[in-house]
Hints:
The chain is 35% helix and 0% strand. It is mainly alpha-helical.
Amino acid sequence: MLDRGVPMEHVELTTWKNALDAYAQSGQIDVDALMQSPVIDQSKLFFDSSVLRGQAPRVDEPVKN
Protein backbone atom coordinates (compact mmCIF):
# COMPACT_ATOMS: atom_id res chain seq x y z
CA MET A 1 0.00 0.00 0.00
CA LEU A 2 2.80 2.37 0.88
CA ASP A 3 4.54 1.57 -2.41
CA ARG A 4 1.40 2.71 -4.22
CA GLY A 5 1.35 6.06 -2.41
CA VAL A 6 -1.28 5.35 0.24
CA PRO A 7 -0.55 7.54 3.30
CA MET A 8 0.75 5.77 6.41
CA GLU A 9 -2.28 6.97 8.40
CA HIS A 10 -4.63 5.16 5.98
CA VAL A 11 -2.52 2.00 6.10
CA GLU A 12 -2.65 1.98 9.92
CA LEU A 13 -6.42 2.50 9.87
CA THR A 14 -6.91 -0.33 7.38
CA THR A 15 -4.57 -2.87 8.96
CA TRP A 16 -4.89 -2.15 12.67
CA LYS A 17 -6.79 0.80 14.07
CA ASN A 18 -10.29 0.15 12.66
CA ALA A 19 -10.38 -3.42 13.99
CA LEU A 20 -8.91 -2.36 17.32
CA ASP A 21 -11.53 0.37 17.73
CA ALA A 22 -14.36 -2.03 16.85
CA TYR A 23 -13.24 -4.68 19.35
CA ALA A 24 -12.66 -2.04 22.03
CA GLN A 25 -16.11 -0.55 21.47
CA SER A 26 -17.76 -3.96 21.90
CA GLY A 27 -15.70 -4.68 25.03
CA GLN A 28 -13.88 -7.64 23.49
CA ILE A 29 -10.43 -6.09 23.95
CA ASP A 30 -8.83 -3.80 26.51
CA VAL A 31 -6.67 -1.41 24.51
CA ASP A 32 -4.81 -0.10 27.57
CA ALA A 33 -3.85 -3.63 28.64
CA LEU A 34 -2.82 -4.46 25.08
CA MET A 35 -0.43 -1.49 24.93
CA GLN A 36 1.39 -2.42 28.19
CA SER A 37 4.74 -4.12 27.95
CA PRO A 38 4.56 -7.80 28.90
CA VAL A 39 6.22 -9.01 32.09
CA ILE A 40 8.92 -11.55 31.28
CA ASP A 41 9.79 -14.28 33.78
CA GLN A 42 12.18 -16.78 32.23
CA SER A 43 12.46 -18.72 35.48
CA LYS A 44 9.06 -20.35 34.80
CA LEU A 45 9.08 -23.74 33.13
CA PHE A 46 6.86 -25.14 30.39
CA PHE A 47 6.19 -28.85 30.91
CA ASP A 48 9.28 -29.02 33.16
CA SER A 49 11.44 -27.56 30.41
CA SER A 50 13.19 -24.25 29.94
CA VAL A 51 14.27 -22.48 26.78
CA LEU A 52 17.37 -21.27 28.58
CA ARG A 53 20.58 -23.09 27.78
CA GLY A 54 22.95 -22.04 30.53
CA GLN A 55 21.89 -18.39 30.69
CA ALA A 56 20.61 -16.67 33.80
CA PRO A 57 16.83 -16.21 33.62
CA ARG A 58 15.46 -12.72 32.98
CA VAL A 59 12.76 -11.72 35.45
CA ASP A 60 11.04 -8.34 34.98
CA GLU A 61 9.21 -6.44 37.67
CA PRO A 62 5.43 -6.63 37.39
CA VAL A 63 3.64 -3.60 35.93
CA LYS A 64 2.22 -1.48 38.76
CA ASN A 65 -1.52 -0.87 38.50
